[in-house]
Amino acid sequence: MSEEKELEQQRLNRVGQEIDQQLIQAETYFEKAHSETRAVESNYIANTSINTAEVDDAMETNAEIQQQRNIVARVTETENIMAKTVDTLKLLRHNPYFGRVDIVEDSWPETLYIGLSSLQDDNGDFLIYDWRAPISGIYYNGTLGKVSYPTPNGEQVVDLQKKRQFVINDGQITSMFDTNETVGDEMLQYALGQQNDDVMRNIVATIQKEQNQIIRDTTSDLLVVQGVAGSGKTSAILQRIAFLLFHSREELNSDQIVLFSPNRLFSSYIADVLPSLGERNMRQVTLAEFFSARLQGLDVQTLFDRYEQEQRFIGHASYSVRQTLESE
């Protein structure tokens, strides 16, 4: 295994060099996009003249304003894309991947490395597959032998010949082991040892098969997750949000997702999970905050107010009964 570990470390070093090169390039593009955005915004007013004296002038002004807005939106979107690319590469730099699967598909052997995000070289070859990609489901669902994964043309069957898991810290493989399980005991022990009571961590390297079914479900309009305390419900739901943002990225973004939190402390506890997966956080509110914002101007009766009202009613009713009995 020591020789194999050395070969794996050599590959990891090459991937690290590729990440560093792409990061330098991405940061250069980001700085350029940032400068362009600032320039467009600063020239927005100067490039737009307001003239509403005549109908034709007003129409021309509106068209000019819309054109300037489109330019601002375009350069801002480019800057946001480059900023996300930089953040993703920084996440990959110290821990590029955590798993490897060797498969044979249509008599063609292939080795896939699974990590937080996909990474391709200049030739378009995948150095890392995003854990949310359909083919990456093999890592979570499959044991050695015949397994399948979804494709646009239906289920594709492959022969899973090896499943390897890595513990990588700052670009160095500290441990690696082959397993036939979804997650090996060594990986679980390491993950549990890294737990921090102050913040919740992402669990992409230790997702169990049952959790993976929850995370990757795309057929249910309404999904209810039940489980005992500590069974991983919250972790699975947060990874599911990251998966849906990847799976439906053309129609869904973080601003369209609301997570109802029991309190602010819980919101703080889970706040780092999505950013650690390269995604922006969704909105988090408590139910009290949600209803307070949407029911402004309405007098919502609290449980205490209701109790007081019921006690007054009981008191009045008792008094009326006594009065009736005394009058008889």
Poorly predicted regions are: none
Beta-strand percentage?
Answer: 15-25%
Distance N to C terminus: 99 Å
> What structural category do the secondary elements indicate?
alpha+beta
Question: Main beta sheet, described?
Answer: 7 strands, mixed
The number of helical elements comes to: 10
Rg from C-alpha positions? Answer: 28 Å
Oligomer: single chain
Give the helix level as a range of percent: 40-55%
Mean pLDDT: 83
Q: What's the β-strand tally?
A: 9
Number of domains: 3
Order of helices and strands: HHEEEEHEEEHHHEHHEHH
Principal-axes geometry comes out as extended
Describe the structure.
- InterPro entries: P-loop_NTPase.
- This is Part of AAA domain-containing protein.
- The longest helix is centred in the N-terminal third of the chain and has 41 residues, at 2-42.
- The chain folds into three domains: 4-93; 95-288, no CATH class; 298-328.
- Helix 1 (2-42) runs antiparallel to helix 2 (55-94) and helix 5 (209-215) packs across helix 6.
- It has helices at 2-42, 55-94, 137-141, 185-193, 209-215, 233-247, 264-269, 273-276, 287-294, 303-327, and strands spanning 99-105, 108-115, 119-120, 126-130, 145-151, 154-169, 172-178, 258-260, 283-285.
- 49% of the residues lie in helices and 18% in strands.
- By secondary structure, the chain is an alpha+beta fold.
- A hairpin with a 2-residue loop joins strand 5 (145-151) and strand 6.
- The chain is extended, with a radius of gyration of 28 Å.
